[in-house]
Amino acid sequence: MNENRQNIICATERLLQTKGLAQMTTRNIAREAGVAEGLIYHHFKDKAELIHEVVEQRMHVAKNILEKLPLQVGLRKVNENLEEVLQVAYDSHYQIIPIICSVFADHQLQISIQKIMKERELGPQLAIETLALYLAAEQRLGRIAGDVLPLSAAKLLWMVAFQLALDDQFMGRKSDLSRAREDIREAIGTILIALEPRLTVKQKTNLKKRSKS
Amino acid sequence: MNENRQNIICATERLLQTKGLAQMTTRNIAREAGVAEGLIYHHFKDKAELIHEVVEQRMHVAKNILEKLPLQVGLRKVNENLEEVLQVAYDSHYQIIPIICSVFADHQLQISIQKIMKERELGPQLAIETLALYLAAEQRLGRIAGDVLPLSAAKLLWMVAFQLALDDQFMGRKSDLSRAREDIREAIGTILIALEPRLTVKQKTNLKKRSKS
Amino acid sequence: MNENRQNIICATERLLQTKGLAQMTTRNIAREAGVAEGLIYHHFKDKAELIHEVVEQRMHVAKNILEKLPLQVGLRKVNENLEEVLQVAYDSHYQIIPIICSVFADHQLQISIQKIMKERELGPQLAIETLALYLAAEQRLGRIAGDVLPLSAAKLLWMVAFQLALDDQFMGRKSDLSRAREDIREAIGTILIALEPRLTVKQKTNLKKRSKS
Amino acid sequence: MNENRQNIICATERLLQTKGLAQMTTRNIAREAGVAEGLIYHHFKDKAELIHEVVEQRMHVAKNILEKLPLQVGLRKVNENLEEVLQVAYDSHYQIIPIICSVFADHQLQISIQKIMKERELGPQLAIETLALYLAAEQRLGRIAGDVLPLSAAKLLWMVAFQLALDDQFMGRKSDLSRAREDIREAIGTILIALEPRLTVKQKTNLKKRSKS
DNA sequence: AATGAATGAGCTTTCATTCAT
DNA sequence: GATGAATGAAAGCTCATTCAT
């Protein structure tokens, strides 16, 4: 059944997140999924194919995290919008990181996953671009500074969410959204200083305009 | 001999970086180090102890990367100083990442390494603090904006170097310092907008007054 | 259906001949026969029963290869008759050998097949006896030497066809009837020297005397 | 140690002969050799390499079976010499056949062994040629008929030994030298009629006539 | 009759670790 | 200190067989 297939995929992801790649043995996967070991090979050519599926599904979900962000343009405060968005990104990264990092242990696996991510465009690119579009829109509304490159700022913001999740995972801290929120707020705060409209800058341009007219 | 001991440590690190944790077998280590497999167990209780040593040495080196940064305070342009510093950090991270990330594959190993890093304070903390001290010093000199938290900005800058290296490693790109430099410059550019002193007319005049007095 | 049953048997034989016993898995049989794996177990108790059927059918066909040979007694030249017969035997053996030899890999299978062949008299015995009868008949016609044991000569001739086929199969040579024919001719040539009537002068005169009386 | 290496090779050959390829598992080999399963892979790259070694050693021994035959030229009776030689050949074949035939079960194995046998000239060629040389020498002494091709006759004789051993193995008969000797004698008898100098035939008939008159 | 998902025993192979030399 | 033969547990994977549909 397709039911068991998905069952196995989920069990594998759970193992990757909780016990790590080394414990993600076919034996453990079968036990976790409550099926016989042989069934894995009925649904997947080999273990690599199973892992690919896990990565693909998880990355596919992550890819579209920010699709609703454009609806927020102009609403609430910019930093509130960003905080909320980065918190979701943090959460998503917290789940993805054990998978992504485990892959470094096995170069062959790493290469095949690189290939899949390139072919299916599963990287962070889409999310970052969505974020950049949002920033550009706010820029047009004058809600953030005009002299900032939206894509560059979006990269930085996305990195923040990733880095916080990585730090927590690496140091074995549970996903703690309220603490993460604090860190996110702090980082956004620093970046937003760059993004905030420069009153002084405006004044400068105003002065220039006046001098031209 | 201590010579062979260090030999084995270096061989292990080389394997971790080039072939990944999965290929870091005792057989491969012995071959790479040019010693017998059994010798490993004369110098190390077990494989975990060897990896601990590898991580410890590498992190120890990384920890002190920025120790010469304070000497640059007030010299050259701030963004030049930061670019140079982040490039070194990128380079260091590019080497460390395969080691650090591989560890995610084995939770037991991860936990024991977490412990070591906490006990010996081997994390990025020191480097970030050094960077923050530098920023604070430049802040005092008025070379960067006064309304920025140096520690928060330092974290962001450090993160940039780490994330660029991670991205390159994950996507299987060779360490390319000239391209990395571009990315670093762009990110610093965006952050520096936040850090740049706000040169309003009033501030300028204030500065002039102070320098006169 | 009986159709599917025979289908499976033929698919199994094809696999045995082309890929060997090791590749004769239930999965491959099902694929080759174009049926579901489970269907095999509706028609046969287990894999052994299926193989028995394959061997039985193939050996049954082989057994009666020479049934038309007696019609040739006294016609054409003896060596021509033998060459033709051995070529057919070679061809038959070329097909049988991969099946028969594979069986050596599994002693249980070998034993059960030995039993079947004894019970149903599926060995080369009948063919050899047919050949011996032919030789005896030709001997009575004076077309081959009188001091030869027909059964012994028949065994030798049969052996030639078998061994040539075995040699070709073992060395991975395609069944090449024209080359086989050469080898057969050579071997028959040597054996026939034994079989040829000793036409010394005295014997000739003796024969003439007897025919006159 | 080399001791254990040879140990494993012999255990493998014993298993091949007594239980067949299917039972020649690494587990059984290790048990039969009285070593740990892992040790097999210390001495051999994989199972195939081990089997190659087994085949090579066994065939190498077989290759030189007849090396002392040339010393018998002109001594004793020809059929006595041949009987003795074929008996040794039978014995050798009886051991080799389970190995050779098992190989048909696994095409990959078969191909790799074909390659080895070609490269190292491990086939029956040498033995057959030695036998042919002997026959040619006896031919020159006038002890066998002059109109026979020695190589062709040698092939036939060699086949006899092989076929008898194969029949016995296939039908699960123990190696029975005394019975084999009977069969060999019978076959040689028939072939020797071809090989016997024809002059004796003439003389015999002359003698018979005289005794009749 | 026919399917193919599901099982689990058993295979080959790898690898950290030990130990006699 | 140094070697490498030896161990045995555990890995990924295959396959004959069963069974619900």
Provide a concise account of the structure shown.
Chain A has helices spanning 2-18, 26-33, 37-43, 47-63, 78-102, 107-119, 125-140, 150-170, 177-195, 199-212. By secondary structure, chain A is an all-alpha fold.
Helix content of chain A: over 70%
Largest sheet of chain A: none
Count of the separate structural domains of chain A: 2
How would you classify the quaternary structure? Answer: homotetramer
CATH topology of the largest domain in chain A: Tetracycline Repressor, domain 2
> Considering the protein shown, what is the CATH homologous superfamily of the largest domain in chain A?
Tetracycline Repressor, domain 2
Overall 3D form of chain A = elongated
CATH A-level architecture of the largest domain in chain A: Orthogonal Bundle
The helix-strand sequence of chain A is HHHHHHHHHH
What ranges of chain A have pLDDT less than 50 throughout 5 or more consecutive residues?
200-205
Q: Using the CA coordinates, give the radius of gyration of chain A.
A: 22 Å
Main structural class of chain A: mainly alpha
Describe the structure.
- The structure is a homotetramer of 213-residue chains.
- Chain A is an all-alpha fold.
- Chain A has two domains: 1-44, Arc Repressor Mutant, subunit A, CATH 1.10.10; 47-198, Orthogonal Bundle (Tetracycline Repressor, domain 2), CATH 1.10.357.10.
- Chain A is 74% helix and 0% strand.
- Chain A has ten helices and no strands.
- Chain A starts with a helix and ends with a helix.
- Chains in contact: A-B, C-D.
